[in-house]
Specification:
Elements: H1 3-36, H2 41-47, E1 55-57, E2 60-67, E3 74-77, H3 85-88, H4 99-103, H5 105-109, H6 116-125, E4 133-136, H7 140-151, E5 159-165, E6 172-178, H8 191-203, H9 212-215, H10 225-233, E7 242-244, E8 248-249, E9 258-259, E10 270-272, H11 273-279, H12 282-292, H13 294-304, E11 312-313, E12 321-322, H14 340-346, H15 357-368, E13 373-374, E14 379-383, E15 390-393, E16 398-400, H16 405-421, E17 433-441, E18 450-458, E19 464-473, H17 479-496
Parallel strand pairs: 1-4
Antiparallel strand pairs: 1-2, 2-3, 4-14, 5-6, 5-19, 7-10, 8-9, 11-12, 13-16, 14-15, 17-18, 18-19
Length: 501
């Protein structure tokens, strides 16, 4: 064989070798990826041959599947539309799925290992047993009220969030983010139309796809004073201890004075801690924070749940909506020592302090529940396709204990005073003891303030029945009072319909 033919033969053999290696690579390492790819048409057709299970709350189907006459046999639908969008998410054909639809996908789709017996039986019967059903903790009434009250708030805020939980279990009773969106156009089988609908939502400057209840962090204003008050109670300061106050306070190293929201708020030189919480005394808490020091404030916030980066809300096991970490930010100088100006501002929930509405609800729930903070969850049960077999039932568990029972009791009394004698009166509920804390937080020099309220309701026996946080973004004057009113309405609804636990 002459040299040119020999070279050609070698090249051909090398090419065949590379082709053989590539085929083995695909079969051994890439097969699963290609088989399950969203771009694999066969996978899509097979996925839609089995009816997807329902997502339900209180016996009502919130997500279901209807039969079609197209190549894809079933289409996902959401009867509640925008009301439950940020809880449920959506299950589209080509786009990425989100929310509970994503986190419980295998069980809903019927492909979970837990449902192997059902699939095994199908091999002999030729049937396509539907997917499993996911039952949520939501109170339908509380969710309805939270959605309607946020949407029709009296201060014309266009963005906000509300979340309510059962302090005794951590079960989420309501979760609403505003503005919301209708997920139904995103699940249509015309993928061009679904993609266009998604793009329009993604480009909306108000961010309707954002889950503000668990994913947005904003300065919490005076609601953070509950954390500072807890640190004070643990460091020798009682409800009746008098602390420095006054109409104005300028921290050392800063020429910028801190003032109260109105001249009538704690103008005296000293007030009790109880009065400082009730009146929401900025000057009192600014000086109290400087007295306690950054380490104590930051550690107490951490014990309440600030800085946690791995919390999820869904199944009590793994998975669920990821929760953004709440932060206290820096309160130190460059040399590591306390910066009194930063510490004073942080102690009234400003500066670099950032909090999610869920974190606010967890603070209120911990106080209401004797200092025990339960892990929040949304999925209370997984039922098989036949609805008779339960594959999972939530077993509530404690997440942490940020304060002792004694400190929780003192905080509870101070928060009750806020509602009965202070700025939270709009949250009152006849026949129930309600405690809370309002918060007004500066957003930017040229923008209206955020309005916050965190609170809880206790029955006549002192048992906690609901804890809530309402945030109205850039609500302006009256925002915190309106947040308190909405919170009271949500808790009233949760009392009437507590949801699943």
């Amino acid at each position: 064989m002459n040299a040119p033919l020999r070279r050609v033969g070698v090249v051909v053999m090398v090419l065949f070798g590379l082709l053989f290696a590539n085929l083995n690579w695909i079969q051994a390492y890439k097969a699963d990826e290609y088989r399950t790819s969203d771009y694999n048409g066969r996978v899509q057709v097979a996925e839609y041959e089995r009816k997807r299970g329902n997502i339900e709350a209180g016996g009502t189907a919130l997500a279901t599947s209807k039969e079609t006459s197209g190549e894809l046999k079933y289409q996902r639908t959401y009867p509640g539309g925008a009301k439950y969008a940020h809880v449920l998410g959506y299950k589209p054909v080509n786009l990425a799925d989100t929310g509970i639809e994503k986190f419980e996908n295998d069980f809903l789709a019927g492909t979970s290992d837990q449902l192997f017996i059902d699939r095994f039986k199908d091999m002999f019967t030729g049937d396509k047993t539907g997917g499993g059903n996911v039952l949520l903790t939501l109170s339908k009434r509380a969710q309805d009220v939270a959605y309607e009250q946020l949407r029709n708030n009296r201060v014309d805020a266009s963005k906000g969030a509300a979340i309510a939980i059962d302090p005794r279990t951590g079960a989420v009773q309501a979760l609403v983010s505003m503005p919301s969106f209708d997920p139904n156009p995103l699940t249509g089988h015309n993928t061009n139309e679904a993609t266009a609908a998604h793009n329009a939502l993604e480009q909306n400057p108000n961010g309707p796809l954002k889950n503000r209840a668990i994913g947005e962090v904003l300065p919490p204003g005076s609601t953070f004073k509950i954390v500072v008050a807890a640190a004070a109670l643990e460091n020798g300061i009682g409800q009746d201890t008098r602390i420095p106050a006054g109409s104005s306070y300028t921290p050392p190293t800063s020429g910028t004075p801190i003032r109260n929201a109105a001249a009538s708020i704690c103008p005296e030189d000293e007030v009790t801690l109880m009065n400082a919480v009730t009146e929401s005394c900025n000057t009192g808490f600014a000086q109290l924070g400087v007295r306690l020091g950054a380490d104590k404030i930051k550690e107490k916030a951490r014990q309440f749940g600030f800085e946690q980066e791995d919390l999820t809300v869904g199944h009590l096991g793994e998975g669920g909506h990821p929760v953004a970490a709440s932060r206290t930010g820096s309160m130190e100088n460059a040399d590591g020592g306390d910066d009194p100006a930063a510490l004073a501002q942080s102690s009234i929930g400003q500066r670099d302090v950032r909090m999610t509405p869920l974190q606010g609800a967890l603070i209120a729930a911990s106080v209401a529940n004797g200092g025990s903070q339960m892990r929040p969850y949304l999925v209370r049960q997984l039922l098989g396709p036949d609805r008779t077999t339960s594959y999972y039932t939530a077993n509530p568990r404690e997440l942490r204990q940020p304060v002792s029972g004694q400190v929780a009791g003192d905080l509870r009394e101070m928060m009750v005073s806020v509602v009965e004698n202070g700025t939270g009166e709009n949250a009152r509920i006849n026949g129930y003891t309600v405690g809370g804390k309002t918060g007004t937080a500066q957003s930017a020099p040229d923008r209206p303030d955020h309005g916050w309220f965190i609170g809880f309701a206790l029955d006549k026996n002192g048992n906690p029945v609901s804890a809530v946080c309402v945030m109205l973004e850039q609500a302006g004057p009256g925002g915190s009072a309106e947040a308190a009113r909405i919170a009271g309405q949500i808790m009233r609804a949760a009392i009437a319909d507590p949801g699943g636990r």
